[in-house]
Amino acid sequence: MSPSASLPVPSPVDSLVTQPDVGEETPTPEDSGATAKTPADEKLASSVSPVTKTPVPSQTSAEIGLPLTKQPKTLAPTDSTTESPETPAPTDSDRDRGVKFKDVPDDFWAFPFITALVERDLFDRAADTDIFQPNAPMTRAEYAVALQKAFKQNPTQNQLNFQDVPGDYPAGEPIKRSTETGFLRGYPGQIFQPNQPMPRVQVIVSLANGLGLKAPSNPNQILQRYQDADRLPAYSVSAVAAATKAGLVVNYPNPSRLNPNQDATRADVASLIHRALVIQGKVPAIPSEYIVQPD
Questions:
Q1: Distance between CA atoms of 281 and 84, rounded to whole angstroms?
Q2: Tens digit of pLDDT for each residue in 137-157?
Q3: Do the Cβ atoms of 243 and 294 come closer than 8 Å?
Q4: Would you give the DSSP letter of residue 272?
């Protein structure tokens, strides 16, 4: 997981540490944009339940690490996000034949981001290697798998044991890793909600925190470019502003609309993860009209 104020890094639910955290807000039904409920990653299909809007236990802002009325303080030191191995080059097999998916034509908006990641083995295909399911929503468990595949960050947080993630859970290790590296955190009561869809705003906040982006001093001014900035959850304002300033945000079909509470699709997540890797200098930048250009 920033000038004068900085973004909070998620920390364990039941062992909050020195700095307040940026939490995660459950997508509201009226803002949800999920159109499909097929899990994208068949590696989890046998054990991960279908995407459902699981009710989240009632919780206070303090319980999930929201900043309340205070300005967020510090993220973990920037050097804690150092990645050990460099991002791999495209694999020989994918580079030689070119990555092609039946459901991702060359003119699909996220085609360049998807192929760039899959060529480097930084994002999973669907079980059928000829399809990608770009418009399928991603659950929190699937997103944790995507994070582990794309980022090789060092742990910065204490290990958490979630009641709804048993030891033999297929995505147990990626979930553990995503919380230890500051990308994700759980809900009150030591639960993770692995089958709950990830809204776009949570993905953006997660990547901003995981990368240790600095919070700008003028977040509201930066966010004025978005027509729906008023729909951002309060906890996310600094993180989304930092992501915008860093050039991380990708909005399809309209760069001026975040659609923050809409469920993130596999294409959304691939494009945002690619931008995060560009910021880290791990992959070459790809031009796209949907990247929100920083001032």
A1: 13
A2: 999 999 999 999 999 888 887
A3: no
A4: H
Q: Which of 291, 273, 295 is nearest to 123 (CA)?
A: 273
- Joined together, the tokens standing for residue 280 give 């880290």
Average pLDDT over every residue of 235-261: 97
Report the Cα 215 to chain-centroid distance in Å. 17
Between the alpha carbon of residue 171 and those of residues 86, 146, 189, 264, 272, the distances in Å are 24, 10, 20, 19, 21
- CA pair distance 257, 236, nearest whole angstrom: 15
Record the tokens describing residue 43, joined without a space.
Answer: 């590696």
DSSP conformational letter for 170: T
Return d(Cα 153, Cα 73) in angstroms, integer: 22
Handedness of CA 256, 260, 264, 270 (dihedral sign): positive
Judged on CB neighbours under 10 Å (0-12, 13-18, 19+), 256 is exposed
% the chain with pLDDT above 70? 66
| Matching residue, tokens 């999973």 | 124
265 beta partners = 137
* pTM for this model (two decimals): 0.70
User: For residue 39, is the peptide bond before it cis, meaning its omega torsion is within 30 degrees of 0?
Assistant: no
